[in-house]
Design goal:
Number of helices: 9
Largest sheet: 9 strands, mixed
Helix content: 25-40%
Strand content: 15-25%
Length: 330
Amino acid sequence: MKPAHALKVFLTVDTELWPDVPGWPHRPLPPERAHCDEELAVDIHGLTSAGGFGLPYQIGVLAQHGLRASYFVEALFAEQAGLAPLAHIVGLVQRGGQQVELHLHPEWLPRPADAQPPVPVCQYLCHLPLERQSALIGQGLANLRAAGAAPVHAFRAGSFGGSRVTLQALAHHGIQIDTSYTPSYQVGVWDQPIAQPMPFDGVWEFPVASFRDYPGHTRHAQLCACSHAEMVHALEGAWRAGWYAFVIVLHSFELIRKRGGCLPAPERHLIQRYEQLCAFLGRHRDRFHTSLFSELALQDIPMPGGQAALRSRPQDTLARMARQAWSRIR
């Protein structure tokens, strides 16, 4: 039977900087790289030898098809680079009519260069105690506010490194939605599998959507990880199964290929995949409604039932694997 309502599709973009500096993050950035100008050009604007394929391009495609997305903006890098580049990112997103949400990578935390023994780098937020997680979330929120961001409604831990403890920290700051969980890449402790939005400790967990692509293996719905055919088949399967939400993830720099000191090149097949996905969602908004976390009425979210697991078609997965193999050797 056809579901009574459209499937809520959340396009989520992890928006972050990764310095191409030897030794970082285990060594501090040199003073001449502290403002992250090169990283803004590459990781945010996606500048390549053939034009830009970062946030301005992504947001332009969204506008072309009347779609909305949530940009999870990494906010701790401002501790080293200052607020100006963070404000620039926030401005790009909000002027484009899209939503800013909070993203944290603890790798950006400043560490004394002369500390003995050296202070280790923490990659996953869930490896920190509750009080420290709460403090970092508070700092990230403060940075976003200072950079001009509208109120934040949702959070994602960097590298999907959240846990049930992270949800407690979010509740302390009044953030009621998290989307750090993905069954194909679990770091923290969650106690149970999560396929659809589920409340824990006053916070709703919106898992990244996933599907079985071959026996014993789960693939999450990330643009660079799934072919267009796989993504469409998963979306249609979720709609037929009556899912409430389908969370898709990509990155601000996902449409380019970095080349170690040279100007990046556009990833043409991923650019095509992004344009195809946006066109598909734009054409079928009767079944797939791109949604924002800020517009949700949490009290109306249905409790998860026994939704059937999604599975890809073998021919789609084989075609994607062949394409990935070719991409690695070219």
